[in-house]
Amino acid sequence: MMFDGFSLEIVKLADATLRVRHGGAGPPVLLLHGHPRTHTTWHRVAPILARHHTVICPDLPGFGQSSVPADAWESAGSSKRAKAGICVALMHRLGFDRFAVAGHDRGALTAFRMAMDHPASISHLVEIDGIPVLEHLERCDSRFATEWWHWFFFAQPDKPERAINVDPQAWYGGSAEAMGRENFEDYQAAISSPHVVHGMLEDYRAGLTIDRRHDAEDRARGLRVECPTLVLWSLRDDLERLYGDVLAIWRPWARHLQGRGIDSGHHVAEEAPDLLAKAILDFLA
Q1: Do residues 128 and 178 touch, judged by C-beta distance below 8 A?
Q2: Which of 34, 98, 216, 280 is 20 to 30 A from 188, alpha carbon to alpha carbon?
Q3: Rounded CA gap, 42 and 59, in Å?
Q4: Which helix (H) or strand (E) holds 275?
Q5: Helix axes 194-207, 210-221, angle to 10 degrees
Q6: pLDDT per 10-residue tile (average), the chain, 285 residues
Q7: Is residue 222 left, alpha or beta, with left meaning phi > 0 and alpha meaning psi from -120 to 50?
Q8: How many domains does the chain divide into?
Q9: Which Pfam families match (predicted)?
């Protein structure tokens, strides 16, 4: 049974309504999924972490069964700053004033923004398959544009929704065998909702506009992540191949940095859960 012993609830906050799974006992750790997954992508990792920690897994705003932010100029409601504030409010509602956060893919961007904007709340930061969006865009070359073309397609108005909604399963892929049956069914329900697809794409639109500006403003001010930071990347994905030394990119952004690659493809929580959970536990210990 997926997330055996965990509770599932809907939490209504001032700026969002979130579907949240939580369980375990001990120091709190918040897990943030990526695109196009929901919180159930953590179903193989969360129970391992819950042996030593209280684990909280929400659907990010705009994803899964959480509320989709209203459309706004520069997709401001889907900015990582807005989502960071919502996630901090969630943790405070659950009784945690200070906690660790781990984010994968798009969730890594929100986790980074949480550490930058709310340093008093974040004890540890784990970045999985991510670098600040500004660093992605400033390093954009023909390889990035060829392999990550979807960033720019997703940022266009209307057209990506029309393309994806014709056949979401063909667009996004995935299988019950690889993901686990319940996780796959939850994911299928999300990508089959045009409303959710729009919310997920707004995350990318914000990335190319307001998120980029927030990163640039923070860099100009000399701000850095002050808490201990662990950066992990999938060795069978393309982050290291595109950028070489991933930690070199992170050093100007994080004061207390460590990291390494993990032998996995992109969806590491599903493909290498034991390796990922051990890396997180060792870091938090």
Answers
A1: no
A2: 280
A3: 11
A4: helix 273-284
A5: 30
A6: 95 98 98 98 98 98 98 97 98 98 98 98 98 97 94 97 98 97 98 98 98 98 98 96 96 98 98 98 98
A7: left
A8: 1
A9: Abhydrolase_1
